[in-house]
Amino acid sequence: MRLYPPAHAGGFFVVRSLRILLWFLGMTLWQISWIDAVAQSGWVDTVDKKMAMEVETVGRIVHEDDDRLCIASSWGADMLGDVTHIPVPNVIRRRTLK
C-alpha cells in the first residue's frame, strides 16, 4: 500500500491510506483537542487572557495516566517520534478517527 500519492491525488489519499493501514495493524488513530500553554515575555501591565489557544494533535496514544496523555505522531517498528506530552486537565476532547 502506498502512503505517498501522486502529486494530483491531494492529501485525502494520504489520510485515507494511513487510516486503512492503522486499522489493518490494529492501531487506533486519535485526534486530541487541547489548550496549549502560552508565555508572554517581557514586562506587561495586563494579562492577555485570549492568548491560550486550542490545538489539535493527531496520532497514537502511547501512554496515559492521571497526570498526562502522551501521543506519538510518528512511529516505526520499535521507535516513536514526535511525542507530545499533554497535561490531562488541558484536554478538551478526544475522538477516534475512522
Question: What do these coordinates show?
Answer:
The protein is α+β, with helices and mostly antiparallel strands. The chain has one helix at residues 11-25, and strands spanning 30-36, 53-64, 68-75, 80-87, 91-96. It is elongated, with a radius of gyration of 17 Å. 6% of the residues are buried. Residues 1-13 have low confidence and may be disordered.
What structural keywords apply?
elongated; single chain; 5 strands; alpha+beta; 98 residues
What is the mean pLDDT?
78
Strand content: 35-45%
Low-confidence stretches: 1-13
- How many angstroms separate the termini? 18 Å
Largest sheet: 5 strands, antiparallel
Count of helical regions: 1
Morphology: elongated
What's the topology here?
Layout: H1 11-25, E1 30-36, E2 53-64, E3 68-75, E4 80-87, E5 91-96
Antiparallel strand pairs: 1-2, 1-5, 2-3, 3-4
Explain briefly what this protein structure is.
15% of the residues lie in helices and 42% in strands. By secondary structure, the protein is an alpha+beta fold.
